[in-house]
Amino acid sequence: MAEAEGAGQPDAVLLAPLSEDTFLHNLHVRYKRDIIYTYVGNALVSVNPCRALPLYSAELVRAYLARPPYQLPPHLYAITATAYRWVRDRNESQCIVITGESGAGKTEAARVCLQCAVVAGDGGAAGARRRGARRPRWPPPARSWKPSATPLLRATTTPADSASYWKLSSTLKESQLVDT
């Protein structure tokens, strides 16, 4: 899963010199190779490809869940897997902020994060059962949280605030996905 040679810098903080021009050039180089995700430290920038790309699968989610952050190329799965680990292992609420202009792909990004969380939760529950631990299932089966997730997939853009927010929280009864 390593990135191809000449595919630009996967983490923009490593650009030298780091300027607006080098940052935008790096995003352009990566975009031309269908590499739409780039880290900026622990944040992720994605460029909407405006077409379907083969970047998403349950196998890939499991790969990101199995490896620590930054050992695989930048991806929404990496951000979601990191948030999932913090909720699962540290019992700390997490928030992923998805922001952008109208048509930037905020709703699609939220959908991808939710798909990753579902696969993570199903795998986490199975792993806990194998180890004999009794952890609550997170997230609960899709049928039990679908109504809560529906508002998350209706991203809106206003001039004052162009962000879609979703929160992964283990502090609620039965550990469920909630909208903030």
TrEMBL record:
InterPro entries according to UniProt: Kinesin_motor_dom_sf, Myosin_head_motor_dom-like, P-loop_NTPase
GO biological process, one term: actin filament organization
Top-level taxon in the UniProt lineage: Eukaryota
Entry annotated with the keyword Transcription: no
Domain Myosin motor: 7-180
Keyword terms: Actin-binding, ATP-binding, Motor protein, Myosin, Nucleotide-binding
SMART domains, per database record: MYSc
GO molecular function terms listed in the Swiss-Prot or TrEMBL record: actin filament binding; ATP binding; microfilament motor activity
Record bears the keyword Hydrolase: no
PANTHER family xrefs: MYOSIN (PTHR13140), UNCONVENTIONAL MYOSIN-IB ISOFORM X1 (PTHR13140:SF802)
Name under which the protein is recorded: Myosin motor domain-containing protein
